[in-house]
Amino acid sequence: MTALSVASLLSSTSTVVQTPAHYERSFSLPITQLPNQQYAIANMRIEQIHPCVILWFGKTDLYFASGHASPPDFHNRDYWPKFEL
Questions:
Q1: Among the residues of 1-85, which ranges form H helices?
Q2: Rounded to an integer, what distance in angstroms lies between the CA atom of residue 60 and that of residue 13?
């Protein structure tokens, strides 16, 4: 039973149907290929990468969510893969 039909059964007044919202946010940061570099930002070691991150080098996909919890929980660091250059 949809929200509209439930609302119609409960009230004889007009109903307002709300459609689900879709939010998407993206940004890009330029990265360069840095072989064997352990530190990217002032002695801050990058150890894991968030599963939602997509990395490209030129037109080559380097990484795209290799695994995630079910149901998806991207805050669960157990599913964050190691970042290796």
A1: 3-10
A2: 56
Contact 55, 48 (CB under 8 A): no
pTM exceeds cut of 0.70: no
What does the alpha-carbon distance between residue 57 and residue 63 come to, in Å, rounded to a whole number?
A: 10
Q: Counting beta carbons within 10 angstroms of the beta carbon of residue 51, is it exposed (0 to 12), middle (13 to 18) or buried (19 or more)? A: buried
Q: Write the pLDDT tens digit of every residue in 32-52.
A: 655 555 555 666 666 776 666
| Cα separation, 50 vs 78, whole angstroms | 11
Rounded CA separation 34/85 (Å): 7
For residue 39, what are the β-bridge partners?
45
On whether the CB atoms of residues 33 and 57 are closer than 8 A, the answer is yes
